[in-house]
Model the fold of this input.
Amino acid sequence: MDARVGTRQGLIALEASVAAPNYAPLPVVLERGEGSWLWDADGRRYLDFMSAYSAVSHGHAHPRLVQALIEQAQQVAVTSRAYHSTTLGPFLQALVDAADLEAPSRALPASGGCESVETAIKAVRRWGYRVKGIPADRAQIVVARGNFHGRSSTVVSFSTEPSYREDFGPFTPGFRHFDFGDIESLKRSIDECTCAVLIEPIQGEAGIVVPPDGFLATVRRLCNERGVLLIFDEIQSGLGRTGAMFAYMHEGVRPDGVIIGKALGGGLLPVSAFVARAEILDLMGPGSHGSTFGGSPLAARVGLEALRVLQARAVQPTAFFCAHDGLAVTVVSELLRIGCRIPEDVSVIGFGDFSSATQIAPQLTTVRMHGAEIGAAAVRLLDNRVHARIPPEVPIRVQIACRIVERSSCGPAMRQIPSNRAGAASRA
Ligand SMILES: Cc1ncc(COP(=O)(O)O)c(C=O)c1O
Done:
């Protein structure tokens, strides 16, 4: 082993020498996380704007979730679905209740989010053949341009991002595109072989694209009229991230199915699920689908606790960073006015071009901030001393969305927040 392995540079070099180069990580070697904070191997503290693309919505090492994980791991962790368990039923019941679809509904658990997207694709196709009567192998699923649903070969088959597809063909047929937010474009994409419309209610990877008001409700009506299922991928937008349990709840819309992931694992495990009306998921009989780890006793216990913590709003203050197009930040307006010393040992990590900002916050005053200000405001929000002054009913959440730009053009990816400059914009 390389003698320098214990050093930051040594660990980075070791990883680079053995890891496939499908990620280009920042030169930060993380060792520990707690709440919104991360520490590197040299003890430097960072405010985690990345939050693992929302998988860590509860904050790092949430005590209730860690406790549940430990307790269950000591009892039994993985059994396969060849048996029942004490944890799966309660977990899926909580999930079905949280999704609040038209009853009766069911849930099919898996691990990573993309696996549950695959579940949804299989289930809606089967519904298309067995219930709608689409001729064999002709089912179409309508998806949005700019979508992101994961990285499996079928899922990248309908991505519109060239880099996700390059040299990975041949691709899975059966997908048709429409322009997100454009109901006329959607109407044109649906025909008698369409079994489902599959969309993110708010596009994440595409840049936190919020559709026009009423769009989801109009899509729902259109799907009803045309006998097409409506499936929402809420892997990124769900589980409290928009202020409701699921984004579709803002418009009072009920999809036929919803795909849930990321924070469902409480920042500890990959836990995902497809929740859908029984008419769809009851078609998935034994042998049709499955996964060794999906719905394991451990995953179910942590998933249930993750839901409970969210429902009790006992979420640790967390900074969200989504590396996406456009820069958006949500902060509590009155907190922005609190001039608070910025800890000197704080850095902000994240990819992106911090040069432009838009603010999204229904309950908040509109502010436009430079990236450094955003970082400073976030630090103020999450600093414990400020925290103590925040009324308990005010959510403490910073959402930043930022376009991934070429590393060469995004300047220093790691930015030091200037100390003692509360509210003073540094254009660094
Ligand atoms: C909307 C959406 N769907 C699916 C996925 C894929 O989830 P996973 O990376 O856990 O497979 C993601 C991941 O970012 C996502 O944002």
In short: The radius of gyration is 22 Å. The chain is about 30% helix and 15% strand. Residues 53, 112-114, 117, 148-150, 200, 204-205, 233, 235-236, 261 surround pyridoxal-5'-phosphate (CB under 6 Å). Residues 317-371, 384-428 have pLDDT under 50 and may be disordered.
